[in-house]
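Bench log, entry 3. Co-assembly request; chain sequences pasted below exactly as received.
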Amino acid sequence: MARSELPLLDDELADFVRGAVSITLAGCHESGVPHLARGTGCRVAADRHQLTVLLAASAGADVLADVRSSGRVAVVFSLPQTHRTLQLKGDDARVVSLDPGDPTLAASYVDAFANGLQALGYSGAVIRSLLQADPADLVGIRFTPASGSLQTPGPQAGQALRS
Amino acid sequence: MKPKLDAIRVCLDGAIPGTIATCSRDGVPNVAYLSQVQYVDAEHVALSWQFFNTTRRNILDNPFARVALIDPITAAHHRLLLRYLRTEEDGPLFETMKAKLAGIASHAGMAGVFRLLGADVYRVLEIERVPGATLPPPPPRANLLAALRASVEELCLCSDLDGLLGRTLDCLERHFEIHHAMILMLDAAAGRLYTVASRGYDASGIGSEIVLGDGVIGVAARERTPIRIGHFAAEYSYGKAIRDNLARSGLSAHMDTEIPLPGLPGSNSQLAVPIRAGQRVLGVLYVESAQERRFGYDDEDVMVSLAGGLGAAIQLLHHGPAEHGDEGRSAPSAAAPTAAAQAGPPLRVRHFAENDSVFLDTDYLIKGVAGSILWALLRDHAETGRTAFNNRELRLDPRIRLPDISDNLEARLILLSRRLVEREAPIRIEKTGRGCFQLRVDRPLVLSHVGASA
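Structure output for the full assembly:
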């Protein structure tokens, strides 16, 4: 995708992926076997062309290896309160080190997500325990969303962002 | 040590939705949320197929899937590598998942959106414990195995069906802290289950019926599999079962012969387990709770085991030497004269041939086999003054159309006897020994028969 094109994410979707949403990443090994990892926060570039999803390297080692070898990644963002779900895919993904503000971003993401779920009756402690990561263990996967679809269960599930 | 699938079943019950990753044939990954991961056995799980989506296309092209599951209590995070095997579009697994999905959908505000198209069965190739912090597990609620053992030992001591059913409900309360329960017996010929014992409801509902295939109880009996729901699901609720039942029953509905099913208002967790003897389904053990997700896989396991013990005990009492040894010889020949004991205005007893329903004055009492039993007893009593009867002669009595030789006559008598007590009828059936009982009539009766043959 040429960088001069409009970004796939508009302002509203950029806010959505940075919000208190559940984040899951997947990669594909060259054997065709998929891998999964949890994300712990997302940063969107100022021009909205690229985003960087943070994750714990130890728990996400297989997805990181898949991304390093294929450049392909799929990321799903879902807001538990509404089930609104967005999947973004890219084929220029690479593993990047953190920006200075990223550990803080990850910590505030975990807080916001855990608080949101706690309001729904889930245990905040469980969510914090699940997502807390040693800042030294955090890495990022940066990619340009080449395709995206809204996957909220219902008649509009699977609707592409740009046809 | 690698975790085993049975050790992480609590993660399958969906308190925290699982995720699935698949890859297209050309290596494009995809992520989706899972409504349901069903434990099939130690090496297989089933996922609900609800939509024709990318996940569906991918697994048909490339059968590998990765599923992430989180323990809702400890936050332990597991990932499973799965290989797709097949899709089941009917049968026990499908019905189990369909019922559960109805509860999940209703809980998620997705009733009418989630519809089960198939149960996708996968082999579990690997289970990986994802590194990360966990919380300490809570102390166990109760030792279910100890509760099961204590219950089964108590059931072994029961010497008649009535006592056995009551003791089963006692055990559920005392050992399992389950306070709302029913036992229903299957009338296979009629395609219905009838309630013979219940605990924890305002009205006992003894004699109420469920059509095979209706609600969690009817589906459990029809599919011969446990059905467990952790959230209220309108389409499996009694309200619907009762409405369907009424709609189907046609004429008898006009005659007002429906006994309301007992049921817990605000029931959120429901578990119906077939009571079996070998391959035969004898009935259903049903438990429920207002608490969401009250019953997990472990509860389901112990209820299946308890129902197994109950089924064996019912079968033993039914065919055991005790009953047959007694009932032939123990019917006392002396028919106590009863007319003297009868007092008060005469009670009109009407029997309708169409469905063997019996009305006391204008009040519905009972129908079906139990109705025909009562009618035969009352006629004998009217004609000969007889009060002593035994099970063996009833089984052979051509006036009582038992569906088949294996029908549980004892259960029909319990049902009849309880209904008479609950309706405060001046007619009672009292057990006098194994396989024999006495008819007690406290008011003069006027018998009238409505319909074809008398």
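The first strand of chain A starts at residue 22 and ends at 28. Chain A is about 25% helix and 30% strand.
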